[in-house]
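Problem: given the chain below (470 residues), write out its structure.
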Amino acid sequence: MDFTAFFEWLGLIFNTFGSAVFVPIMLFIIAMFLGTGLKKAFFSAVMAGVGLTGFNWLINEYIPIIVPAVQNMVAATGIQLEIVDIGWQATAIVAYATKAGMVFLGVGLLFQIVLFLVRWTNIFQPGDLWNNYSYMVWGSIVYVATDDMLLALACMLVLNLYSLLFSEMLQKRWSTYYGYPNCTIIQVHHVGATPFAIGMNWIYNKIGLSKVRWSPEKIQEKLGFIGEPVMLGLVLGLLIGILGNLKALGTLAAWGNILTIGIATAAVMAIFPRVAGLFASAFSAITEAARERAVKEGSGREIYIGVNDATGYGEPATLISGIILIPIMVLVAAILPGNKVLPLVDLIALPFMVEAMVAIMNGNILKVVISGTIWFSMGLLVATKYSALFTTVAAGLGVELPSPDALVTSFGILTKPIFGGLIFPPFVNGSWFWIGVVLVVYFILYFWLRKNKTQLHEYLERTADGDVPA
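Solution.
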């Protein structure tokens, strides 16, 4: 059997149908398996497709409007750094085209399904297959560095185990905060922030920072109609527009662009909750059926479905925190000792990147902005370290570099302090001793979570807003 051809065919299937078709099919199968009945299963599948399509339309319309302003803002600063951020989209294309990526397409999918079926995890990860590209990126770097496909595959599978572990820590809090029953994010490039966010929130609660409540609801209470999400979106959009047009404020075109960005950001704030409501309705029947099945079997197992990170992008605290972090991270990149990465294309992805923090900190924008600044600053150093290897991967697949000696990275994918700074190095260095240590730590954490999962979830719910001392 030609496995390369099979994996290429599998990749073609994923890319052709996309999440808006593939997720409903998976959801329909799960719903039928849980015994919801044909009518409810079909309705759940259709509403999931409708919701995901709505998210994609909204985000795909919004991002092209704001990206030029963000890039102009970066250009206006005059910052010159040698490593250029080419963005998660280009990085995903690179990942799916590599040999390591092709291998993980099939092996990774089988691995994820088996982990769910044998009850190693209660998260059905294939609900968001597209984002497997993040594992593929790290695996491809290992393959380029070591020329060892087994080592690259081992790296991707271990990263998958850790990402599921962190997703299980986050699952209830994310589901509760974003309002999607029995859903959670599972993207390796987002859930890695979960332990950090838990630790930072504990510190904030200890020092009393939780008393400063910058949630959209509290801001609205203090500012009245100006604090409403739509108005906050307008103000933030105008601010980004002005920063992106500083050199042309005397022109009509600049003000047209500024006002367009302001209205577009306000529109995301207004429309996103309505689309979220449609998407959430897809899971009510499945959630109820899963609970009934768990009670009948006496297992107490609660199933969660991994969903695309687009489901949280436009939530008010998430979008506001991400937009505020855009100019902050540009400034940090310019002054951070040892950093050589210039965030650019992926700056607009910051709302995706803070979802774990937003959920754990219950939408407290101040906490999220402080935490995000620290987390992504550490991440810039990780991306700096591995930029040369990633550039080799990208250039080998025909990615056009800004210049022959230029280095590239992805601010959204490769700035991961835990995954890229702690778990990945033993594999890229081919150190089997430290790989063993990474595995031992995983199993210790895994069995600890199995024993204390309910208590951890209850703790995160109690302390999310700082009402109860940690």
